[in-house]
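Hey all, quick one. A colleague (J.T.) asked me to put the nicotinamide-adenine-dinucleotide job into the tracker so the inputs and the structure tokens live in one place instead of scattered across chat threads. No bug as far as I know, just bookkeeping. Sequence used:
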Amino acid sequence: MGLRVGVVGTRGIGQRHAECHAANELADLVAVCDVIKARVEPVAKKHGVPAYASLKEMLANEDLDIVDVCTGGPENGGWHYEPVMEAIDAGKHVLVEKPISNDIEEAREMVAYAQEKDVYLGCNLNHYFTEPARLARQYMEEGKVGEILYCLHRMGFVGGAATYSPGGGPNAKGFPYFHVKAFLAHPFSIMRYFCGDITHVQAFMNRPSYRVAAGDPMVSINSIHVRFESGAVGYLFSQRGDATMGLGGWWSVEVGGTRGSFCVENCVEKCTFFPAPGTEGAADPGKLGLGQAPPPVVHSTGVTDFGTTFPNRIHAYLEDVTNKVPRHRIRSSGRDALATLEYTFAAIESYESGGELVRPAALPTLRHDPRLQ
Ligand SMILES: NC(=O)c1ccc[n+]([C@@H]2O[C@H](COP(=O)([O-])OP(=O)(O)OC[C@H]3O[C@@H](n4cnc5c(N)ncnc54)[C@H](O)[C@@H]3O)[C@@H](O)[C@H]2O)c1
């Protein structure tokens, strides 16, 4: 028997999560809930599980191990706090969609409460649960990248003026930082996954004129300059469908080190390694002309579907809970998600102050459980 899972919020993403749990041997999808009956009933019927109108009702009737929170809300995170806190209060492990919240105080409280109640709080920072990211980390662990010097990350949906339709829903309307809060969790999670904590942030933001004409003030073009705790430097360009990005597609990251660099393209598709001249197996610097580099090692996965990141990430969470990993070792934790929100709030503060340098608030101490190494 697998871990008993109940999903909260059964619109687009909740349905996807429900399918992942139903198909995973480590989980038993036992119930679903949504405040809107017409949304929850077809999902319950499809999976042959009971439908509930609230988390309270679901908790009262089901013996759950995990509550998977897939609500959205303002800036795609405004409805996470209440169900997450309610589930933690009931002693359940929680997986929550990103951003962990649209409110930094609420996010800090969620992480602190999960620690206090000793439950696994995970977040669906799914973009690095991929084959290219696994390979890239392997290059790092094998010492092939060396000391990390820089990180360049670009992430944004394909678009342009012709594809724009004003976001009129409750998530976006009246929230100029909708894109910033809803989306930056992903690129910041990637930069931190490869390069560690960020200590300095400077941001410039903008929006194309057609958003202004449509009365939507969303600051959807974000140019963010960072410094990592290690001393490495980084740059993030993010945009929400305002232009069509060329090199590296909609998603690319390049991490450069003293022994080699890697690039991941289109998230799931490709990882390329560029060895530094003179490293093992690579051409001698003396045999290369100015600016020339040894040939890269290209690995194309054959995967083009970004959707594969969902079952991968959900499987990792189920695996961590099943294996009872030490709380501080859970992958893509609530604390990891809080880090991305601290950086996001630092970027907003920098933008609002005309591009001043901002130091994101420190993360809560990562407490190691002495009983579990
Ligand atoms: N990780 C990813 O790649 C990815 C991609 C897209 C969206 N998301 C995230 O997934 C989340 C959900 O997205 P969506 O587009 O499905 O949202 P949505 O707003 O369309 O649906 C959320 C559902 O939750 C229900 N709901 C809200 N509060 C509730 C509560 N307290 N109890 C029960 N039901 C409640 C709503 O009625 C709605 O049906 C968002 O946080 C979004 O940021 C993640």
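Adding what we noticed when we looked at it: The chain has eleven helices and 14 strands. The chain has two domains: 3-127+309-331, 128-303.
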